[in-house]
Each structure stands twice: as structure tokens, then as C-alpha cells.
Design a protein that fits this description.
This protein is α+β, with helices and mostly antiparallel strands and about 70 residues long. The protein has one domain. The protein is built from two helices and three strands; from the N terminus they run αββαβ. A three-stranded antiparallel beta sheet has the order 2-1-3, with helices on one face. The longest helix is centred in the N-terminal third of the chain and has 22 residues. It is elongated and about 50 Å long. The relative contact order is 0.19.
Length: about 70
């Protein structure tokens, strides 16, 4: 029983940190309010498609790279 609990905790922890590291590698951020924005777009067109219909714009992600 302890092994299952340990495996679940490790899996949850690894997924939590994986998302944060991946966001740094994307080139574009969707900006709809002040702050860092939603930086999960690899291309400008992909970002603009998500911005369509919203009061938002796409900007280059100048955050840390891997």
C-alpha cells in the first residue's frame, strides 16, 4: 500500500513541475491582461487563432530558454 502511495505522489509531483518547465520553451504568449500571459504557443498563427474573438494579442516570449 505504501508503494502505491509513493508512486502516486511522485507522479503528481513530476507532472506539476513538467508544465512549468515546458512553458519556457514556447515562442509566443497570449496577452489579454497585465502579467506574463499564457505562453503555450509555438507559432504566431496558432497564438492568433486562440486570440480570435478575444480582446487579446500575441507577443514574443522573451522569458528564459532551455
Amino acid at each position: 500500500m505504501k508503494i502505491i502511495l509513493i508512486v502516486m505522489v511522485l507522479a503528481t509531483t513530476s507532472f506539476a513541475f513538467a508544465g512549468q518547465a515546458d512553458a519556457r520553451g514556447y515562442k509566443y504568449c497570449l496577452k489579454s491582461s497585465p502579467g506574463p500571459g499564457d505562453c503555450k504557443y509555438s507559432g504566431y498563427r496558432q497564438c492568433m487563432a486562440s486570440a480570435s474573438g478575444l480582446n487579446a494579442t500575441c507577443v514574443r516570449n522573451y522569458g528564459p530558454r532551455r
